[in-house]
Amino acid sequence: MPVAGAHQKDLEVQEKHGVNYLKYWFDESSGKVFCLVEAPNAEAAASVHREAHGLVADDITEVQEGS
User: Fold this and answer.
1) Residue 62 falls within a domain, yes or no?
2) What is the number of domains present in the chain?
């Protein structure tokens, strides 16, 4: 599945999980994809991917916004 298509599917189901997928980046040569998402927790972010297209993250890193 193309990255843009997977991202679109995320956008279609994110609201019911309280999640907001903001942006994504990908490296074609390695096949790695990185997503920036606002979510109440890591499981909510992962739930969107599972429901939308079944592609799940290898790692999710929770961060706090700096001032």
Assistant:
1) no
2) 1
Task: Give residue 44's pLDDT band: very low, low, confident or very high (50, 70, 90).
Answer: very high
pTM here? 0.86
Each residue's pLDDT tens digit, 29-40: 999 999 999 999
14 lies in which domain range?
3-52
The CATH number given to whatever domain includes residue 43 is 3.30.70.3090
Q: Which of 11-50 are b and which e, b meaning 16 or more Cβ less than 10 Å from the residue's Cβ?
A: eebbeebebebeeeebeeeeeeeebebebeeeeebbbbbe
Q: Looking at per-residue confidence, does 39 or 1 come out higher?
A: 39
In whole angstroms, what is the distance from residue 2 CA to residue 34 CA? 14
